[in-house]
Every structure is written in C-alpha cells, then in structure tokens.
Amino acid sequence: MSKNDILIKINQLYKIFGHNSIEALDLVKDGMGKDELLEKSNCVLGLNNINLDINRAKIQVIMGLSGSGKSTLIRHLNRLIEPTSGEILVNNEDIISLSPKQLVQFRQNNMSMVFQKFALFPHKTVLHNVGYGLAIQNIAKDEWIEKATRWISRVGLDGYEFYYPGQLSGGMQQRVGLARALSTDAEILLMDEAFSALDPLIRSEMQNILLDLQNELHKTIIFITHDLDEALKIGDRIAILKDGSMVQDSGPQEIIMNPADDYVSDFIKDINRARVIEVRSIMTPTSTKSTGPVAQESMVLEDILQIMSKDPSKPVTIENSKGKITGKIEIGNLIEGMKRPKSQGTNITG
Ligand SMILES: Nc1ncnc2c1ncn2[C@@H]1O[C@H](COP(=O)(O)OP(=O)(O)O)[C@@H](O)[C@H]1O
Ligand SMILES: [Mg+2]
Fold it and tell me: What global pTM score does this model have?
C-alpha cells in the first residue's frame, strides 16, 4: 500500500436542494452564495464544488457548523442523496452510474454506517442487531451468529447478546451500532456524528475503542463531527465545510498552525495549544545533536515544557520515530507555538 493510496475521489460535486436546481447550479457556478441563492431562486445550496481525495485505511474527518453540508456530503457516498452535478469515484469506479442492482451490492459490500441516534431495531436482541447485515446476505445462521458474537465481544459487550437496545445505556447502544457496522467487513465506514449524543466520558471511551479497532482493522473511515477536540484526536485528515464549500482539508497539525480563514480560526481559538501541537510542527529542522536532552517529534508542546524546565537554556534535540535527529527546540520555538495564528483577530496589545 503506497502512502497516498486514494480510495475515494470526489470531483466537482454540487448539491442544490429545490426545484430548478439545474438553473440554480449555473448561478452557483457564477459565484452566487448560499444566502443569495435561497433568496433569488428558493433553492438551498447543499454542496458547492467539493473536491476531496480520501485516503485508504485512514480516518477522514469532516467538520463544520450545523447546516454546513456534512451530512449531505456523507450521504452522497452511499447515494442516499443524488448529486446535482459531479463525480464520486470509489476504487476508480464512478458510483453515480451504478444501476439500482449494482447499488444494492455496493452498499452491502463496501460501506456501512454508524448513526448518531444508533438506529438499532428495538425489538431485536443485540445479537440480531449486530448480525442483521449478515443475515440479509443469506449467510448461514451459525456462521453469522459466530461472527456477530465475535464483534459483540470485540466492542466489550460480552454477555449482552440477548439484551434489547432499550435495556442498554447510550454508550452501550452505540457499541452495538459499531459492532453491526463492522460485522459486514465493509472497507468503508461512514460515521455521521456517531458519538455526538454521548456524555463526554463515554464519548472519549468510544473514541478510544474506535482508534483501537482502527489500529487493527485499517478501515477507511469518514467521520463527521462538529467538535474540534474529537476531530484532532481521531482524524488523520480534517476537511472543513462552511455553507456547503470546503474551506480547508489538511492534517490536524496544519489546521492548528495554518488555519485557512477566520472561520477555521474560530474553531481552533479555544483549544489548549500546549496539549495538541506536536513538536514536529514547531521545531527548527537540523540533523545536528544539541547540548540538552533528547525528545521525540510526536510529543506535544507540554511534554517539552516539562523536559526543558530543568534547564531552559539548553536546546532539546528532537528525534523521529526511527531515532534519527530531525530538529531542535529552544524556548523561542515554544513561544512561537503557543501564539495563536494572526488571522484569529485576537489583538493583544501592550
Ligand atoms: N432534503 C433537503 N431539502 C432541502 N434542504 C436540505 C435538505 N437536506 C439538507 N438541506 C439543507 O442543506 C444544508 C446542509 O445540511 P446538512 O448536510 O444536513 O448539514 P450538517 O450535516 O452539516 O448539519 C442545510 O442548509 C440544510 O438545511
Ligand atoms: Mg448533519
């Protein structure tokens, strides 16, 4: 598998809700924004020229305020929504041109979805909920039971096989949702605000379960959230939507260090920079050993503060995961890292 192995390619995707969407499309292509379009043509701009490459075996986060088009985008991937115009390639195959029969196959084999409100069958047991996707594929009963039982165990629900969803807490129900999505072995996992309804502690636990599973399974996960902390924790890449347009798509560190505009800056203004900025983002590149202690690229600023506090005058040598020297950190780098990017509009004078 090459480093940039693209599984899903979204090209010039537009979605306009309402009658006359084709005429409205021309207006949008001529530069009309969401508010004006609604006023002039009574159409809602859902997605505006989205271009996005999604890497195989990585977690692509889609972030944005409510109404920015996140759900509209993810629903295009399994064609719950038809585009007004544009192209979606999965494994180089244009999924817009699939016949209804091919589409059923495609949905069964390639994608599964985890929903915010769990969407479990209330009158089926945990076992039957998890095994449902397999049972409808005419897989032999003992085989799907075996498989479902394994996934139930993998998400930590041993012993709950014959419980009903209503007897479980929200966090446990979402574990069932996750087990159900994983049980079909689909390569792509779509998660639309899957953890947003959960309490903070449970939510953090679910994030850990997901990351743990991902280490082992290497799925391609499209994960929608409006929560930056979640995006930073989960995402290999983060795409940010605003009014149907994509304003940035980059790695988490890049989002923090170089927000594309004020909308993105606004998202990151309250984060604890010391805890999320990695050393590699602020170090001065060099291959020469410095006089002070040694630290790793993947550490966060806070870790380096601890290390440097013993002797702040000595630069810290930075190594990558292979033990090769890649940079150094001095106090000045830490100060630069703690500064919020300029475009944030926070003026501290004096
Ligand atoms: N079926 C629909 N008909 C009309 N407008 C819609 C429909 N679905 C979504 N929209 C509009 O499209 C925009 C994007 O919605 P959505 O994708 O649900 O946003 P998000 O998931 O980011 O909160 C919103 O303005 C929403 O009102
Ligand atoms: Mg949504």
Answer: 0.91
